[in-house]
User: What shape does this take?
Amino acid sequence: MGILNKLRMLATAPLLLLFIPALSLADPLPSWNDGTTKTAIVDFVEKVTRKGSPDFVEESQRIATFDNDGNLWAEQPVYFQLIYAIDQVKKMAPQHPEWKTEEPFASILKGDRRKVMASGKEGLMKILAATHANMTAEEFQSNVRDWLNTAKHPKTGQPYNKMVYQPMLELLDYLRANGFKTFIVSGGGVDFMRVFAEQTYGIPPDQVVGSSIKAKYEVRDGKPVIIKLPEINLVDDKEGKPVGIHQYIGQRPIFAAGNSDGDYQMMEWTTAGDGPRFGLLLHHTDGEREWAYDRKSHIGQLNKGLDDAGEKGWTVIDMKNDWKVIFPFDKK
Assistant: This one.
């Protein structure tokens, strides 16, 4: 081909693109393998954003909710917020000599994590009160930031806020680029997640819904502060997730993503609404690059969700087969 013809083609290329509005010059989900899962996501986004489509959804209604633990970032060997609390107990122990004999603190100091978990709700509430309450909101935020800057995951040696799923980061960006408003709706603590959610996921604090403890307003030394109290306000898990969405978002999502039976009600409520709906369930099937677990897992148990996904029309991510990479630090 002559040089003049090549120049003419380059000059007219932008005009040709005007007649192919659906053409994507770059894959918006490069860490996802081509297949039915990726296709289902893209097809849904295209149909709800295409004006003139019978399934078109106005931007104001394009709400997407994502669980955090095990869905946006990893959750093994135990929930990262619990690891934070355990680390805080160890840090605070010199000021609490009584913890050497008081459970569950004594087991934490001995490194007996199994006994800590066996302490049940009562034990976990004691840990929560000691590490999350009776302090100002600013003090708690500072403690979490310091922990994120220093703590490392026991398996990968990575900071915990790097243990996020690269394919999910791409999905969040893809949805936002198509007019979706993305929310975290998690059983994790809302104040804990708000410390890192914007920097890590691009999700601002006002778009984070999570479990919370009560708080009160005080003036201390002439300065107004919010004090975190050792009393449960909302458990944003299972049946609590639709309630949290209703109370803090105010409208039913059209897209919901989770990974465990703790997300079942959120996905059920989302996909039961009128018009186009999408439920996305992450199945941890990769024991080499991450962890393989579902029905009998000590955390993130996925049982009923797997059984009902087909009937509910939910799309199930097979982590091993659907994702090219798991974490951002896996990228070459």
User: Anything to note?
Assistant: The first strand starts at residue 63 and ends at 66. The domain at 29-50+57-77+163-330 is CATH 3.40.50.1000 (Rossmann fold). The CA atoms of residues 37 and 184 lie 21 Å apart.
